[in-house]
Structure formats: C-alpha cells, structure tokens
Design a protein that fits this description.
Blueprint: H1 21-27, H2 29-42, H3 44-51, E1 55-56, H4 57-64, H5 68-80, E2 84-89, E3 92-97, H6 99-104, H7 114-128, H8 131-137, H9 142-146, H10 153-157, H11 161-183, E4 193-197, H12 203-211, E5 216-221, H13 223-232, E6 241-245, E7 256-262, H14 270-283, E8 284-294, H15 305-317, H16 325-335, E9 338-343, E10 350-355
Parallel strand pairs: 4-5, 4-7, 5-6, 7-8
Antiparallel strand pairs: 1-3, 2-3, 8-10, 9-10
Helix pairs in contact: 2-7, 4-5, 7-11, 11-12, 14-16
C-alpha cells in the first residue's frame, strides 16, 4: 500500500497546520529556561568574558569544572539560543559571548540578570513544579516545594537569610534595568519626601534619587530586610536614602508626599490591598500621591503574555494576582485616592498614579 502523504484534514486544512510547531515549542520551553539557568550557574558566560578571546570547548570545560561532552552539548544549545557566537579556525571551533550575553548574563555587568536567573532557577522553578496543585487548591505551594508554612507569606519568602539575600538580589537586578522607566513614567519632581514601601534592596530608591535630585527616599521594610540592605546594598554614599523598620500592615507609616509600592500589591488579595492603601492614604500628606509599579494586564485580560504568566506565578508563590489598570484604579478609589491614571513603559512593569487630592505640590505630568 502506498504511503498517504496528505496530512491535511478532510475539511481542507493545510498540511502545514497539521504540525503543531507552537505547541511543541511551548512543551520544550522549560528546556530553554534550564539551559540558560545552568549556563549561568556554571559560569560559562563569565569565563568567556574574562578570557577576552574565543575559547574552545575543552578550555571552557576545564574552566567551569565540567565534563567535555556535557560542556560541548551545553555550548551547542547556547549557540542555538543565540547566546554564544561560534568561530572556525582550521576546523577548530571556539566560542564567545554575544553582546546580550555579556551585558545581561555575566555576574559583573551593571545590567546583569544573573541573580534574577538564580532565583528563578532555585526558587520559582521549584514552586512551579506544583502549578497543577496551585490551580486546584487556589493557594501558593511553599509548603510542598520547601516544607515551610505559607501562613505568613514573607516568613515563607524569607525562609532563610540566604533566601532573603537572593530575593533582594533579584529585585536589585530587575530595577537596574526597569527602574528608571517606572519612576519617570510620571513627573514626580513635585514630591520631595518619598517613602518606598517594601523598598527591599533600595535599587528603586536609587533610581528615584538619580532622576529627582531634590528628593529624599525612606525605605520602609521589615527589620531583617533593612539590616541586610544596609549591609549589602545601600552605602553611606547614598545620603538621600534612609530607612524605617516595620511591617506595613501592622506598624505606623512615616508621613510622605509620595508613597511607592513597587511589586507589592500583586502579592495580596483585594481586601489586603485596600487595607494597605487605606493606611497609605491616611499617612499621605495633603496633595500627596501613591505610585504603583506593576505588570499591567490588558483590560480584556488578553495579555500581555508576561503579565498572564506572572499572575500564575502569584498563585504559585503568593496570595495575590496581576491586575488591569482599571482594577488597580478601583483599589485606589476604595482607599480614597482620586484622579487615577496609568502609563505603560513598554517594558515588564508599568506605573499607576493615584492622588490624594489636587496636588498642592505642583502638577504631575
């Protein structure tokens, strides 16, 4: 019997559509992630950066302390992912970083995503193993992934000093590449006294003091986070950045012209968000404002895909979700803020601004 090569449907579906290319790509997506994660963890990109010349697979395997066979396969995959360049010289293959790999995947680069990648590999990836359970149960999966109770969200998130530093390094790397865009989405120069709630490593505070030379920023965070930030992230040279220790749900908030909540509300339910925003409203000076920094969903929920995936991650890791600009506006209005507006940055995170009343500090553009 002759082989039937017509793979199209009887209803006239083109044969090419019978090959599920996109679905296969999605199935293999985690392979790509782990290739990047392992390459960073092994130091492949760091070795190539420091060498300042292309290296052979043999040289790289020796430098990273790995098998030659495994290294060759990893380098081939990184080449296919366009993270490495290959060079041929008399039949000898050598490798070098692409520009993006040098800028974003090496530990020493000012724009490095290395720490973010490590957190994704060692924490988020393990939580996502239980995504099915998270969807069924409607709650985060720290207990299954790490054997710790998730009743206190940040006790689970900061379950060890090492894990807390990793999370802070993650935040540092994100704001190094996205921070300027969110703090300049609106003209915040009228607000001289700023409080960054959950300011963590101080990376966004530094972006504020850089963009607005006349402002001061107080980072409000848990005592152990403040201690770690002072020890590892904020130096004496950052003279316009100060600290307040406390739990923003339980303790009084310092008075300020502007409160920044960056990647805070997406951790919590609507009820907890309104509770926190109401505290912010009461502490806010007349004419003040609150700036929310979040990954905004389209109003019809159709995208962006990154925000949709982040919302799933909030299910796996927290109590919250990603929201639309209108949904954040409703939370702000419920707490008393008016004249809510939002700006898209074109990057991962966007900005939503809510005013306590008509600003006496000047117009906010």
């Amino acid at each position: 019997m002759a082989e039937n090569r017509d793979t199209g449907s009887s209803e006239g579906t083109p044969a090419a559509d019978a090959y599920p290319r996109k679905i296969l790509e999605y199935m293999e997506g985690f392979l790509i992630s782990k290739t990047v994660f392992s390459s960073c963890e092994l130091g492949v990109f760091d070795v190539l950066l420091s060498a300042e010349r292309p290296l052979s697979a043999e040289e790289i395997s020796q430098a990273i302390g790995a098998s030659l066979d495994g290294t060759q396969r990893l380098l081939a995959a990184c080449t296919g992912l366009q993270l490495l360049n290959t060079h041929q010289d008399d039949g000898r293959v050598s490798y070098s970083n692409t520009e993006q790999a040098s800028v974003y995947l090496t530990r020493t680069s000012p724009s490095s995503l290395y720490q973010s990648i490590q957190y994704s590999s060692r924490t988020i990836y393990l939580c996502w193993h239980y995504l099915t359970d998270a969807v069924r149960e409607g709650r985060n999966q720290y207990e299954k992934a790490f054997g710790v109770s998730s009743k206190d969200l940040f006790q689970a998130l900061y379950r060890s000093d090492e894990e807390m530093v990793k999370f802070m390094q993650l935040m540092n790397s994100i704001w190094n590449i996205c921070g300027k865009d969110v703090v300049t989405a609106f003209d915040l120069s009228p607000f001289k006294v700023i409080c960054d709630l959950g300011g963590c490593s101080g990376a966004l505070a530094k972006q504020c003091t850089s963009a607005y030379p006349e402002c001061t920023v107080a980072i409000f965070d848990l005592p152990k986070v403040v201690r770690t930030s002072r020890e590892h992230f904020v130096t004496e040279a950052d003279q316009r950045i100060g600290f307040h220790e406390g739990d923003f749900f339980k303790d009084p908030l310092p008075e300020a012209d502007l409160y920044i909540l960056a990647r805070i509300l997406h951790d919590w339910t609507d009820e907890r968000c309104i509770e926190l925003l109401s505290k912010v409203y009461k502490a806010c000076k007349p004419g003040g404002a609150v700036l929310l920094v979040e990954a905004l969903l389209h109003e019809d929920g159709s995208g962006p895909l990154t925000a949709q995936l982040y919302s799933l991650n909030m299910l796996v890791q927290t109590e919250g979700r990603e929201r639309t600009a209108a949904q954040y506006g409703a939370l702000l209005a419920a707490a008393g803020f008016t004249d809510t507006r939002h700006r898209l940055t074109g990057k991962i995170y966007d900005a939503v601004l809510g005013l306590k009343e008509t600003s006496c500090c000047g117009n906010v553009a």
